C-alpha cells in the first residue's frame, strides 16, 4: 500500500490501515449511490430543471462510465468539507455564534444540517465578511432550493454576468462589484422550468 496514504491517514489522526480505509470508502460510495444511477429520478421535475440550468448533467451513467459517480461523490465531499461550522463562521465574521444561527434562521446565510450541526458553504464568505450583496441574492432564491443547488448556481459561469468581457460566476460577479440585483434576478428562477 502507498506510504503517502499511510502518511495522510496518520496526519489526519485516523487509526486505520490504508486497506481498511479504502474498504470504508468503497462501502460509503456504494451506499451513497447505486453503481449505475439514474440521477434525474432523485429529483422533482422543478429540481431537475434547476440542476440542469446550472450546468449539471443528469443523464444516466453507463456501466463503463464510473467518472460521473466519482465526480458526484467528490463534489459532495468537497462541498461538505469546505463548509464552515457555526463556530468557524462566527470566528471568521467576528460575531457570536448566536448571530450566525439567527442569520441562518432569517435567510441571511445559507446552510444545511449535517448530523445535527449546521454547515455553511464557503462560497458565501469573503474575508472577514459575507459576499457583497449576499442578502439581496438570498432573498430571491426560492425556499425549496437545496443548498447544493444554490452552491452550484453561485459557482457556475453565467453568460449574463460578464466580468472583463468574460462570463463570470455569480460569486465572482459580486466580488468584482457587480449589481447584486442581476444575480438575484437569475437566482429567482432556480427551480423553474427553462
Break the fold down into its secondary structure elements and pairings:
Elements lengths: L2 H9 L6 H15 L12 H9 L13 H16 L3 H8 L3 H9 L6 E3 L2 E3 L5 E2 L2 E2 L3 H7 L6 H8 L3 E6 L2 E3 L1 H6 L4 H8 L7
Helix pairs in contact: 5-6, 7-10
Keywords, separated by commas or semicolons:
2 domains, globular, 10 helices, 194 residues, mainly alpha, two-stranded antiparallel ribbon, 10% strand, DNA-binding protein, single chain
**Compute the gyration radius: what is it?**
19 Å
Report the order of strands and helices. HHHHHHEEEEHHEEHH
Q: Which overall shape is indicated by the principal axes computed on the Cα atoms?
A: globular
Helix % is 40-55%
The mean pLDDT is 81
Counting structural domains, the number is: 2
**Span from first to last CA?**
49 Å
Q: Strands across the major sheet, in which order?
A: 1-2
Helix-strand makeup class: mainly alpha
Largest sheet, in brief, is: 2 strands, antiparallel
Number of helices: 10
Number of strands: 6
Low-pLDDT sequence parts = none
Estimate the strand proportion: 5-15%
Q: What would you note in describing this structure?
A:
The protein is mainly α. 49% of the residues lie in helices and 10% in strands. It folds into 2 domains: 1-32, no CATH class; 81-187, no CATH class. Helix 7 runs parallel beside helix 10 (180-187). The termini are far apart.
Task: Give a summary of the structure in a few sentences.
By secondary structure, the protein is mainly alpha-helical.
Amino acid at each position: 500500500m502507498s506510504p503517502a496514504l499511510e502518511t495522510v491517514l496518520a496526519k489526519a489522526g485516523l487509526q486505520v490501515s490504508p486497506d481498511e480505509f479504502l474498504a470504508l470508502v468503497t462501502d460509503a460510495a456504494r451506499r451513497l449511490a447505486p453503481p449505475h444511477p439514474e440521477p434525474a429520478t432523485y429529483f422533482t421535475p422543478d429540481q431537475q430543471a434547476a440542476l440542469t440550468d446550472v450546468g449539471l448533467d443528469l443523464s444516466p451513467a453507463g456501466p463503463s462510465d464510473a467518472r460521473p459517480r466519482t465526480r458526484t461523490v467528490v463534489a459532495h465531499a468537497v462541498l461538505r468539507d469546505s463548509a464552515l461550522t457555526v463556530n468557524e463562521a462566527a470566528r471568521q465574521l467576528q460575531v457570536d455564534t448566536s448571530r450566525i444561527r439567527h442569520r441562518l434562521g432569517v435567510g441571511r446565510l445559507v446552510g444545511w444540517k449535517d448530523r445535527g450541526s449546521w454547515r455553511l458553504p464557503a462560497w458565501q464568505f469573503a474575508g472577514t465578511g459575507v459576499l457583497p450583496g449576499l442578502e439581496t441574492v438570498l432573498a430571491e432564491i426560492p425556499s425549496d432550493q437545496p443548498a447544493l443547488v444554490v452552491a452550484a448556481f453561485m459557482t457556475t459561469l453565467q453568460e449574463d454576468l460578464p466580468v472583463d468581457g468574460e462570463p463570470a460566476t455569480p460569486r465572482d460577479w459580486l466580488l468584482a462589484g457587480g449589481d447584486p440585483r442581476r444575480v438575484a434576478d437569475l437566482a429567482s428562477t432556480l427551480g423553474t422550468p427553462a
